[in-house]
Amino acid sequence: MKPATRSLQSRAVCQSKIQKPVLSEGRTDPKSKILLGAHMSIGGGVHMAIQRACSVGCTTMQIFVKNNMQWLARPLTRREIGAFLNHSQRHELLSIFAHANYLINLAATNPQFHANSLRSLSEELIRADQLKLPFLVLHPGAHLGAGEEAGLEKIIESIDHVFSRIPKIKTRIALETTAGQGSCLGSKFEHLAYIISRVREPERLCVCLDTAHIFAAGYDIGSESAVRKTFREFDRVILRDRLVAIHVNDSKTACGSRVDRHEHIGRGKIGLEAFRIIMRDHRFRKIPKVLETPKGKDLREDVENLKTLRGLIGS
Ligand SMILES: [Zn+2]
Ligand SMILES: [Zn+2]
């Protein structure tokens, strides 16, 4: 598969809309500017996620914009939108973004399933836009036996269709790198580059990198030299400007296993080196880094993982 052409990519540079970190009075610790957080539940309403994230010291978070296992939901009310946008702690989160529900498959071969996917994605982009979220993370899709090329073509067609129906929506789609489990596309950087190079409105697409997914997909990030090589590959194929978020997850499974199982930081097969580089390299400074690791309601595991990651920053 040919990688995206340079002209298409440069035409479509997608700048991150992350606001500059604003420190509240007296907070001078440079570590506080690090964009680090976790995926947060919206149980009790979307505004509740803000409270949860702030309670464990996040400066960024990812949320679902509705129940992640349902196709459709009733529209957000003005009151719900207001409670989120005007939340007293919202300014503590320097970047908030969304993740699409897991049912959506833009390469679905069943017509009804495909139609539901398009409708659901449009609806979620509208909801994310109402909440003023800059992007919605999406797994590109699974070809279900149709083959890689047919799957990618269907995804491109689907993205064009969705965007053409909602021309005024500012929330972009952040295509996520995947582990390549089953027939899931997105396990090669070239898959994402190809989609970006072929859609009609590439400026409405960006990329989210998941450390556990790329590792399971076969990109080695187990040592400093391997991490640097993998990121050079990312820059060559996709371009760094496209990267708007990193999911910081360790992996229960080995490199190349193509099995997607997230593990707590430092307790999986990736080791700490990749996370040390992601936390320390200035090029990742403005990129929000979000955990998607297993946790209970008290968020104790988030506290632990955030502490481990902050500890890697050094002095
Ligand atoms: Zn994901
Ligand atoms: Zn992820």
> How many β-strand runs?
12
Summed over residues and divided by their number, the pLDDT gives a mean of: 91
Shape field: globular
Sketch the major β-sheet: 8 strands, parallel, barrel
Which small molecules are bound?
zinc ion
Give the count of helical stretches.
Answer: 10
Low-pLDDT parts are 1-28
CATH-defined fold name:
TIM Barrel
If you compute it from the alpha carbons, what radius of gyration comes out, rounded to the nearest whole angstrom?
18 Å
Estimate the strand proportion. 5-15%
CATH class: Alpha Beta
CATH architecture field: Alpha-Beta Barrel
Q: Report the CATH superfamily.
A: Divalent-metal-dependent TIM barrel enzymes
Which quaternary structure do these chains form? single chain
Overall domain count: 1
What are the secondary-structure elements, in order, as H or E?
A: HEHEHEHEEHEEHEHHEEEHEH
**Secondary-structure class:** alpha/beta
